[in-house]
Write a structure and sequence with these properties.
- Helices cover about 0% and strands about 65% of the residues.
- The protein is an all-beta fold.
- It has one domain (about 1-65): Thrombin, subunit H (Beta Barrel).
- The chain has a four-stranded antiparallel sheet with strand order 1-2-3-4, with no helix packed on it. A three-stranded antiparallel sheet has the order 5-6-7, with no helix packed on it.
- It is globular.
Length: about 70
């Protein structure tokens, strides 16, 4: 189940209940990819200046260069 969404340019990031961050690119709508696996649920996400920040329920913050 998808419960967090973030759109950055032509990419859709979804955080799922099975602790994964999945990525879909548009307009091609490529098949889903597991981008990253977490130990806890994702509770926050933000894209800014070409960076993706992801926060999890155990207070972990991950920064990914887009």
């Amino acid at each position: 189940m998808c419960y967090r969404l973030l759109i950055h340019e032509n990419v859709l990031f979804t955080a799922t209940s099975d602790l994964e961050l999945k990525v879909y690119s548009f307009p091609q709508a490529n098949a889903e990819q597991v981008f990253m696996k977490f130990n806890h649920l994702v509770s926050a996400r933000c894209a800014s200046n070409g960076l993706l920040f992801i926060g999890t329920r155990n207070a972990e913050v991950v920064m990914i260069n887009l």
